[in-house]
Amino acid sequence: MAGVCVLAYSGGLDTSVAIPWLKETLGCDVVAMACDVGQGVDPEALSARAKAAGAAGVVIVDAREEFARDFALPALRANALYMGKYPLVSALSRPLIVRHLVRVARERGATSIAHGCTGKGNDQVRFEVGAAALAPDLAVVAPVRDAARTREEAIADAEARGIPLGVTRSSPYSIDENLWGRTIECGALEDPWTSPPADAFAWTADPATAPEGPDVLTIAFDGGIPVSLDGAALPLADLIQAVARRAGAQGFGRVDMMEDRLIGIKSRELYEVPGALALIAAHRDLEDLTLERSLAAFKRGIEPIYAELAYNGLWFSPLRLALDAFIAESQRPVTGEVRLRLHRGALTVEGRRSPCALYARDLATYEAGDLFDHRAAAGFVKLWGLPLRVWAERQGGAD
């Protein structure tokens, strides 16, 4: 294969050693394309590293607001948690990266794109299925998967080529970060019985040594969109980061789980997701206050489906787009404020209020001013239980 190949470049071990592999194996020029999705990119260092590895060109995209608006926000409004735990950190950034891979490939006249995923991970599916949805004519190359090298071999190759990297044999974690959270894999974490080493964490304090006093946050939403923190309006990306910093400082947001990968294996995954989990908790609580009962119940039913679609690389699928339309309609009344108390690894919702609240104190109270018609309840209970009463009378009661 000659011509140009655009590589999704993170600056890490796998994508750095992928550059010389692509050049030497396929005989193509490699354009390294990196997206800043909130992980913090040093453009000069990243460009220098890609060029040291042999890249013919480097493209760096500031996609922080795009990621917040088009990917993190829809996941938040869907309360999307894979297996009820994981808020889809990497799964949300991959379709954005694919979007820009395709754009740069068109601009550079490339006939192929490449990613640095292994054969065991979910990201290979997300990159390749996403590319198939957006640009089915482009070939997709997977040098790390095709070379089938161990991490030790990849580190040795990088050292031999003089490629500067932030990974060592003594600390061989595979890290992925964006606005929504931080993922940590490999090394000692591959033993499910081993406690996560302290050096694996960067965003969250040890709950045991977190501050003695709690931190109380008030998050305001407008139509399901978080718009302010403690009364101060913030752009979405900045608000997510601010909540993550404060929640993480209180030791909140660590997830250590055995995850069912799409590829068919179980893996031990460690996540730091203080901002994502805090925002989802606040958003879900505000929905409980503002959504009509049947709408809320139906939405809770489709939330795991939404999370699985994103996790399984089907972000650009018709079903995910259709679910987004439903969720957008459901969010119209989700406006108001939620007060969170964070303390030593725990999060508690302390209060919520909304101009669209469906809670009516004069109906719920047991004190003076109660407007609930208690006499109507007797007839309701009788009719509600009528089918069971007839069944019991005609066919025998339950054991």
Describe the structure.
The protein folds into two domains: 4-169, Rossmann fold; 177-353, Argininosuccinate synthetase, chain A, domain 2 (Alpha-Beta Complex). Helix content is 44%, strand content 20%. The protein has 14 helices and 14 strands. The strands form three sheets. A five-stranded parallel beta sheet has the order 3-2-1-4-5, sandwiched between helices. The longest helix is centred in the first third of the chain and has 20 residues, at 89-108.
Number of helical segments with 4 or more residues: 14
Distance between the termini: 72 Å
Order of helices and strands, N to C? EHEHEHHEHEHHEEEEEHEEHHHEEHHH
Largest sheet: 5 strands, parallel
The third-level CATH topology of the largest domain is Argininosuccinate synthetase, chain A, domain 2
CATH homologous superfamily caption of the largest domain: Argininosuccinate synthetase, chain A, domain 2
By CATH, the architecture of the largest domain is named Alpha-Beta Complex
How many structural domains in the coordinates?
Answer: 2
What structural class results from the helix and strand content?
alpha/beta
Determine the mean pLDDT.
93
Fraction of residues in H or I helices: 40-55%
Name the beta content range.
15-25%
Contiguous low-pLDDT stretches (5 residues minimum) are none
Inertia-based shape: elongated
CATH class of the largest domain: Alpha Beta
Number of strands: 14
Radius of gyration: 25 Å
* Largest sheet strand order: 3-2-1-4-5
